[in-house]
Write a structure and sequence with these properties.
mainly beta; Immunoglobulin-like; 1 helix; 2% helix; 35% strand
Length: 259
Amino acid sequence: MKQTLSILLGVALAATAFCGDSLPELTLTLSTQGPDLYADGSAVKTGETYLLVYVHAGATNAGVRTDGTLVNSLDNEIATTGTAIDGSRCGFKAIQYPASLYPADGKWALVLLDTRDANDNVGGLVAGQSEVTAGINLRTAASYYGPVGMDVPAQSGIGLKSAGKTAVSLGVPIPVIASIVSKGNTVDIKIKDFSDKARYEVEDCTDLAAGIWTNRYAPTGGMRLQAKTLGITPGVGKELPATVTVDNDTVRFFRVKAN
C-alpha cells in the first residue's frame, strides 16, 4: 500500500471529496453485506482476504495470479486489503488518498480471494477470486459531492463469490511425474519440478483417446496440493508427494498440472 494512503474510521461505503471543488483528498470505504461465498458454496472463513483494486481508465481488472500478484500490474493497482469478519463479510475499512493518486476516470473493484490451503486454513496460495461484474464493482469515484458507493447486487442478500480462476504465477516450471506406485484403490505419485508458488492438481483417465480426465485434487473440494502446506522446499532432488484414491482399474493414466 502506498505511503500516501491513510487508514480512517468511517460509517458508510462512499467516496467523498473534501475542501469543495479543489478535491485535494478523497475518502473511500469498503465492506460487504455478506454472506460472501467460496466457489464450492461454503461461507467465507474469518480472516480471508479481499483486495481493493484500482483499475486505470480504459483497462479491465485482469485479476490475480496464484501467488497473489496482479496479472496486469501496469493498469491495475492494489490500493489496500480487507479482511473477512464474523458473518462471512468484508469488515469495514476506510482509506484517505490524494485525488491525483487514483484519477476519477478509473474505477474500483473489490475482489474476494480464496486462500484456503490443504488444511482448510486461510493464508495459502490463491485458489480463486470473485469475478468483477456490475453487481460487485465499486463505481468510479468521480463525483465532487458524495456519496459514490457500491452497486447493490441483483440478488438480495447475496454477496461476493470467489468463483473465478486465478492465473499461474510467473516463473512456475512445468511439473513432471517422477514416479507412480499403485496400492489397490490408492496411488502414490511423486512430482518433480514443482514450485512453492503454485497449486497442483492430479488428473486421471482410463482412455486416452476419449480424453475424459477426472480431477483428483479439485480446487473446490478442499484438496489443494501445495508445497508450502506440506513444508517442502523446491530444489534439486526434491519431490512433491500426492496420494489419490481411484477405482481399481487395470489401466489408468495420470497427469499433473499447475493451477
